[in-house]
Specification:
This protein has 4 helices and 4 strands; from the N terminus they run E-E-H-E-E-H-H-H. By secondary structure, the protein is α+β, with helices and mostly antiparallel strands. The longest helix has 9 residues, at 36-44. Strand 1 and strand 2 (17-18) form a beta hairpin. The chain has helices at 20-24, 36-44, 61-66, 73-79, and strands spanning 9-10, 17-18, 28-29, 34-35. A two-stranded antiparallel ribbon has the order 1-2. A two-stranded antiparallel ribbon has the order 3-4. The termini are far apart.
Length: 85
């Protein structure tokens, strides 16, 4: 097994393990320690503002500075064609 395929990283929300290859494939985000599936769940959740049209606005202080997902959220919002960039 190559070192790139060893599952040494884990999602902070679901505890599933991931490899460096998963980062390259966009399945795990090392900047936040959260996997793509958990981000998809956040985007559907009513308790999360993540990637939502009515709340995502990169020009606001909350989105641009304070949000721990500020680097990832725009990617999901843009893919869904929502938000202000």
């Amino acid at each position: 097994m190559d070192s790139i395929d060893k599952k040494l990283l884990w999602c902070l929300l679901c505890d599933e393990k991931f490899s460096l290859a998963d980062i390259e494939n966009g399945i795990y985000y090392s900047a936040t320690g959260i996997c793509k599936e958990c981000y998809k769940k956040m985007a559907k959740s009513e308790q999360s503002c993540f990637g939502k049209k009515e709340v995502y606005d990169q020009s606001t202080l909350e989105c641009a500075t304070f949000c721990p997902d500020r680097k990832i959220c725009p990617t999901f919002a843009i893919q869904k064609g929502v938000g202000k960039t």
